[in-house]
Write a structure and sequence with these properties.
By secondary structure, the protein is mainly α. Helices cover 64% and strands 11% of the residues. It is built from six helices and three strands, in the order αβααββααα. It has a three-stranded antiparallel sheet. A hairpin with a 2-residue loop joins strand 2 and strand 3.
């Protein structure tokens, strides 16, 4: 899967990914106990969702006794990057001035704390490029 290839995700798939990111590697029963009751879904539905996320290469799994234990194959940050890049590449060149202006417009709505974090991230990124 390339960076621009981002799988379509449903609400339940996102909830399951969020659960795995928060609680770490888990078997389907544990994920169901945390995600299922609020959604009124069965263990089978959670198992199917975990399998779909595995096939989409977003989770990895290992056999433990008679069940699989699933773990995140990508970080939240990596998936977010893929989703943003895939969305943008559908309507614009990711290196275009239009995209940069959209980012500037978005940043203009940020508060001072958010702007400081953005500036720190840019500085950190630039410093990292200089080390290569």
């Amino acid at each position: 899967m390339t960076r621009a290839d981002a799988p379509a995700l449903g609400d339940l798939e996102i909830a399951v990914l969020e659960d795995i990111w928060e609680f770490g590697p888990s078997q389907a029963k544990a994920v169901h106990e945390r995600v299922g009751p609020s959604r009124s879904i069965t263990l089978n539905t959670v198992q199917s969702t975990l399998e779909r996320l595995f096939r989409k290469a977003l989770l990895r799994r290992e056999k433990v006794s008679h069940a699989y234990r699933y773990a995140a194959a990508v970080s939240r940050r990596e998936l977010l990057g893929r989703l943003v890049e895939a969305s943008i590449s559908r309507i614009a060149d990711p290196r275009s001035d239009g995209l940069m202006m959209a980012f500037v417009d978005l940043a203009a709505r940020a508060d001072d704390d958010q702007l400081e974090r953005i500036e720190a991230m840019i500085a950190e990124h630039r410093a990292g490029r200089g080390e290569r």
